[in-house]
Amino acid sequence: STPAIGASGDVAFFYTLNNNAQGVARLSGGRVEYRPLRSIGGLLAGHSQGGLVYWADGERGWGLYRWNGSGPSTALLLSGRLAPNDEPLQQVYSVAVNSRGEVFVQLRTSQTDLLVARLGAAQPVLFQSGARLNLTAGLQLQNGSLVRGNGSGAPYVLLGSPSSIFQFDSRGLVPRLVNGDRLPDGATFYGVGSRFENAAGDLYFDSLGNSNRVLSADRLDNLVLGNFRADDGVLVNRGLVLALNDRGGMVWQAGTDRSHNR
User: Fold this and answer.
1) Long-range residue pairs from 13-17, CB within 8 A, at least 24 positions apart, any chain
2) Which residue, of 71, 95, 130, 184, has the greatest Cβ tally within 10 A?
3) CA 13, CA 11: separation in Å to the nearest integer?
4) Distance (Å, rounded) from C-alpha 130 to C-alpha 33?
5) CA-to-CA distance for 104 and 135, rounded, in angstroms?
């Protein structure tokens, strides 16, 4: 794991000894302090006055702990237990700690893909997925942002990287699917890969890590391609759309269990 260094030069790091004992250590003023752990995870943040915050299997199991270099550590969040939004904790992405010992954490819970909180505060949740922010943002247009196709309706535009899906209509630029949205089958939308539009204005796209999707008006469907055994016994894996015509004809490609694509 990457070590952390404080403003005063303190260095913190995880260690593993010859006997497989593990823990976290802090080097401060020529003195080394140790804290044994059952298993080490990630060294996330440290401050000379605010303490060291890390993910590990500590006194109360896997979770996020703070240790000031002496005495026991303090459990801040535990894996699978309730996070500040009262949903079970699933993953911690990043952490920051200041000189007052305030800990700010970016995490994911069972029903919320992104949440930022100040642990221990009276109102710990600062913002989360779906929050509306009153600010001005520039459009990130790039080559290929405008989805080309034969449709006669409002055009689709891809913005950002990974790309979210927007559409021009009488209201202006309207978001259709934004990075982080929860899809109807429970998957998370992480942006667009390949995309095609037909004459009816339906948008076929690969949702990066999930299956192909079809966005038609206000309906979003899952397009199942592959995952079957061909007549010659070859298992065809999940495929991606390569081309589309106005009559519903489609060319798609998939890997197989025989080390070749079809």
Assistant:
1) 13/43, 14/40, 14/43, 14/54, 14/56, 16/40
2) 95
3) 7
4) 43
5) 22
Edge to edge, what strands does the sheet with 115-119 contain? 89-97, 103-109, 115-119, 125-128
Inform me whether the pLDDT recorded for 54 exceeds 70: yes
Amino acid code (one letter) for 67: W
Q: CA geometry: angle at 256 spanning 252 and 260, to 5°?
A: 90
pLDDT tens figures, 196-243? 888 788 888 887 766 678 888 778 888 888 888 999 999 998 887 878
Length, in residues, of the chain = 262
Structure tokens at 259: 């080390």
Burial class (CB within 10 angstroms; exposed 0-12, middle 13-18, buried 19+) of 193: middle
**Do 72 and 36 meet the contact criterion of CB atoms below 8 Å apart?**
no
Burial class (CB in 10 A: 0-12, 13-18, 19+), 11: middle
User: CA-to-CA distance for 23 and 38, rounded, in angstroms?
Assistant: 7
Confidence of residue 73 (pLDDT cuts 50, 70, 90): confident
> What mean pLDDT value characterizes the chain?
83
Q: What is the pTM of this model?
A: 0.62
pLDDT confidence of residue 118: 95
State the burial class of residue 129 (Cβ atoms within 10 Å of its Cβ: 0-12, 13-18, 19+): middle
